[in-house]
Amino acid sequence: MMWIPLLTLCLLQAPAAKPTAGNQDVVVLKSGRRLTGELLEKGKEQLRLRTKSGEVRIRRLDVRVLTRKGQARSLLSLHPPELAEGAKPPSTYIALRKNGPNGTQTLSTAVSRWYHAETDTTLFLVGAVHIGEKQYFSRLQEILDSTDVVLFEGVGAGKDGKKPSEEDLARIDLLFKLQLTLGGFLGLRFQKDCIDYNRPFWKNADVDFTTLMAKIKREKLSFPTDNPILKFILKPLFAWIDPREIKQNPKIAKRMRRQAAPLLARSSGLLARKGMRKMQSVLIEFRNDTAMKAVTAELAHGKKGRWLSLFYGAAHLPDFNKRLSGDKGWQYQGMAWVPAWTFE
User: Fold this and answer.
1) Are 130 and 218 in a shared domain?
2) Nearest CA to 6 among 84, 58, 66?
């Protein structure tokens, strides 16, 4: 049997469009090769496709797109659905959404798609929350692994070799601190435990810890975790909670999700509040400068026709929107939502 590396893509919600796969399943590899036939297996590591020439085993990490027969185009198709006139990038990459008539709701994060015509490059802005259901992180992994290069958030070790601890990260990241506090109460998984960063095409596109701490010191900023706003929103949430009781009763965790989701949906805007502008310039914009330099470098030195992804916390992505929207070289092509938590 012939082996070809593959990646199964998650189909995100997108505007309705005419089916494109016809009567066959279609697999498009990152190399550009197109295979058609009947999908026999879609496993974690590979898929099997019956073609006219026989059965083919395909490794997941080399697949660009998998389109099932009769399936409509989505944000992750080779060509996304056409946008409605006047469509704009999402103003936020984290939101509460009602997904069904039975009252089920989700806390969801957004993915937006952009195109750079000069280099024929597609870029996905992939927002994330640090805690979520297992299937949420599986979907993000699939989206990211479908691209040729993943530029990800991760304050790492500096030239002095000092690595930030979880406590260090919580001190500098208000949203991380909130989610770290909530995670144990809600029966959710942590991003670092579910996302596999160990891919050769995944690259850290963040500042190092030493550089960031030096910047905070120069600007004479206090840590956002000391902000009274955070203490204010957490106090009523945890004042009456016994963590031991939550672990013994999953229903309490589900109820907690319903109460915590609106807080997390609003938390990404905390740094935009009056008096926090300078902190936002350091924790969001300063780090985003580094990420965008990484994108520019990929455009300059990479092959044409590639797919890139920028994988950052949801609070960072509105700033990326502004940068791409202000650059005539980039064209917005649409967005979709990925559910992180579900609750009733």
Assistant:
1) yes
2) 58
Cβ partners under 8 Å of residue 49, min gap 6: 25, 27, 35, 37, 38, 39, 40, 55, 56, 58
What's the number of domains the chain is made of?
A: 2
The C-alpha atoms of residue 257 and residue 54 are separated, in whole angstroms, by: 49
Give a yes or no: residue 324 inside a domain. Answer: yes
| Statement to judge: residues 118 and 13 lie in one domain | no
CB contact set of 260 (below 8 Å; sequence gap of 6+) = 182, 185, 186, 237
pTM: 0.83
Domain residues for the domain of 138 are 94-343
What would the two tokens of residue 289 be?
């400068």
Is residue 246 one of the residues assigned to a domain? yes
Q: Could you report the average pLDDT of every consecutive run of 10 residues in the chain (344 residues)?
A: 39 39 87 94 90 94 93 92 91 85 83 97 95 93 96 80 70 63 74 92 92 85 61 55 56 74 72 66 91 96 94 94 94 95 82
For residues 333 and 271, membership in a common domain is answered with yes
